[in-house]
Amino acid sequence: xxxxxxxxxxxxxxxxxxxxxxxxxxxxxxxALQTCEVFRDMFxxxxxxxxxxxxxxxxxxxxxxxxDESASTLRLLLRLLHFPPxxxxxxxxxxxxxxxxxxxxxxxxxxxxxxxxxxxxQLADKYDLSDPLRRALHSHLFxxxxxxxxxxxxxATRNRIDDVAAEASAYLLHPPLSTYSKDxxxxxxxxxxxxxxxxxxxxxxxxxxxxxxxxDIFPFxxxxxxxxxxxxxxxxxxxxxxxxxxxEAGRMSSDDYxxxxxxxxxxxxxxxxxxxxxxxxxxxxxxxxxACSAAIEMLGVKCLCL
Length: 306
Description:
It is a single chain. The chain has 306 residues and is mainly α. Helices cover 49% and strands 8% of the residues. It has 15 helices and seven strands. The protein has helices spanning 30-33, 37-44, 46-49, 71-82, 94-99, 117-126, 131-143, 149-158, 162-170, 182-185, 191-214, 229-249, 271-275, 278-281, 286-302; strands at 15-19, 24-28, 64-67, 89-90, 107-108, 257-259, 262-264. A hairpin with a 4-residue loop joins strand 1 (15-19) and strand 2 (24-28). Helix 4 packs across helix 6, helix 6 (117-126) runs antiparallel to helix 7 (131-143) and helix 8 runs antiparallel to helix 9. The longest helix is centred in the middle third of the chain and has 24 residues, at 191-214. Mean pLDDT is 80; it is low at 47-61 and 252-268.
C-alpha cells in the first residue's frame, strides 16, 4: 500500500505545491488539497495572507503554493490527500480467538508500516485532515500493535492514545520486559509509562493465576465421572498448579520460541491451549473428555477481558 511511498504522480494535475527548504515542486490536484480544512482556509483567504506565484512558461499550472515543509514531508502529505488509505480489513476470526482468551489482532491483510505512521498522524493533526482519514490511520496504528508492540505502546503512550496503548500492552506480556535490551526499553517515553506497564503485567498475571486456580473440571459436581472422578480431578489439579507456577515465572511448557536471539517459553496468556493437552489423556472416557473440554472453554472465556 505504502511500500512505494516515493512514487507520487497524480494524473491531470491543475496546481503546484513547492517545498521552500528543498525548492522542489509537486504537481497536485487542487480539489485534493481542498479536502483538508487548512488548505481550504488558505484558498479562501489567499488574497490577504498567502502569496501565489505566476509562471507563464507552464500555462496549465500557473499557481504555486509555497510551504515550509521538507520535500519528503510534502510528498507524504500529498500522498495522503490524493490517495487516502482505506482502513485495514477486519479479521473474521479475531473476535473468536479473543473470546478464547488469546491476544489476536482485529485486523488482517496489508497495514501501513509502523515507521510511516508517526509522521502521518502528526500531519493529520497539523493540517487537520478529514475524520475518515484520521480514523483509517488510527486503525492502521491499532493493527500494528501486534507486530511492533513496544514501539506502538511507546508512541501511543506519548500521544495519549489510550486504546492503542492498551492493545499494544497485551502483546508485551510475554516475552517479559526483562528480555528487551536497554535501548529498546528506552523507547518508552517516561518512567511512569514503564511503571504502568509493569503494574498492568503484574495485574494480568495475578488475575490469570486466580482464574486458573478457581476453575474446576467438575464444578459443584456437575458432569462428574463416577468411575474416574478422583484420577481426573488429580490430573486437572496437578496440571493447573504447574501452570500457575509457570505463570509466575513467565514460562510455559510448550516449545520454545525466539526473541532477539534468546529462547523463552510460550506466551503465558493462552491458558486454554496449555490445559488442552489434557484432552488427549481423557480420550478413553467420553464423560471426562466432555468435562475437560467445557472447563478449558470456560478458561478461555474468563481470560477474555485480560
